[in-house]
């Protein structure tokens, strides 16, 4: 069973929790959960999240998890099970923050995809492996940026872009996996959570 949570944090909460960047938000979200992975660190955390920004001084973070979170030390948290049948529609409106990147065939290094048009093409190309076709005319690419934060004594940089539009499910099993496990890279830092709403 998957659990959908909305975590609300005011300015005083953010200061007390030392939320300054994507790495500190990763810590804040993951502190809500028991680490149940054991020695298998490759199995994934079972936690996806998306920073929805600040409205009237209150930050909202959406979280999808394979287990319920603990009550937070600060802020307010609302959690409910993902409704049965929610992932059985044939079409959805969606929004997702992605880390658009490709592996360079020559060097083997991961390189960011640059430019809104190239990011849109990258996403549409990968849709079928995630179990859906993107309705290209509906696709909007916004908030393209490089996210830099301190990590392990150094500085990490993640390319981010927000995409929104509509999709049609073509492979139910792959689609459910994409929703539950996230898509693309940098999922531990707020990328990859498909926020979806069934279309009539």
Helix and strand topology:
Blueprint: E1 3-9, H1 11-16, H2 22-30, E2 47-55, E3 58-65, E4 76-81, E5 91-98, E6 101-103, E7 110-112, H3 116-126, E8 132-134, E9 140-151, E10 154-169, H4 172-181, E11 195-198
Antiparallel strand pairs: 1-3, 1-4, 2-3, 5-10, 5-11, 6-7, 8-10, 9-10
Task: Characterize the structure shown.
The strands form 3 sheets. Strands 5, 8, 9, 10 and 11 form a 5-stranded antiparallel β-sheet that branches. The chain is 18% helix and 40% strand. The two termini are 25 Å apart. The model has no long low-confidence stretch (mean pLDDT 92). The protein has 4 helices and 11 strands, in the order βααββββββαβββαβ. It is α+β, with helices and mostly antiparallel strands and 200 residues long. The longest helix has 11 residues, at 116-126. The chain folds into 2 domains: 3-81, Crispr-associated protein, domain 1 (Alpha-Beta Plaits), CATH 3.30.70; 86-198, 2-Layer Sandwich (Alpha-Beta Plaits).
Q: Briefly, what CATH class of the largest domain?
A: Alpha Beta
Q: Roughly what percent helix?
A: 10-25%
Radius of gyration: 17 Å
CATH-defined topology of the largest domain: Alpha-Beta Plaits
Name the shape in a single word.
globular
Number of helices: 4
Low-confidence stretches are: none
Q: Structural class, from secondary structure content?
A: alpha+beta
SSE ordering: EHHEEEEEEHEEEHE
Spatial separation of the terminal alpha carbons: 25 Å
Total strands: the figure is 11
């Amino acid at each position: 069973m998957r659990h959908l949570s909305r975590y609300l944090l005011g300015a005083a909460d953010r200061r007390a929790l030392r939320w300054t960047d994507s790495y500190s938000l990763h810590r804040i979200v993951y502190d809500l959960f028991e680490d149940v992975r054991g020695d298998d660190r490759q199995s994934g955390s079972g936690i996806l999240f998306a920073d929805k920004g600040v409205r009237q001084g209150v930050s909202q973070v959406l979280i999808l998890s394979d287990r319920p979170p603990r009550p937070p030390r600060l802020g307010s948290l609302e959690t409910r099970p993902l409704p049965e049948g929610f992932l059985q529609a044939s079409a959805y409106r969606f929004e997702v923050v992605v880390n658009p990147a490709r592996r360079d065939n020559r060097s083997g290094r991961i390189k960011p995809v640059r430019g809104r048009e190239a990011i849109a093409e990258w996403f549409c190309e990968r849709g079928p492996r995630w179990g859906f076709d993107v309705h290209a005319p509906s696709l909007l690419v916004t908030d393209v940026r490089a996210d830099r934060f301190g990590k392990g004594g150094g500085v990490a940089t993640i390319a981010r872009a927000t995409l929104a539009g509509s999709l049609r499910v073509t492979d139910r099993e792959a689609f459910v996996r994409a929703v539950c496990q996230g898509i693309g890279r940098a999922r531990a830092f707020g990328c990859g959570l498909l926020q979806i709403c069934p279309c009539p």
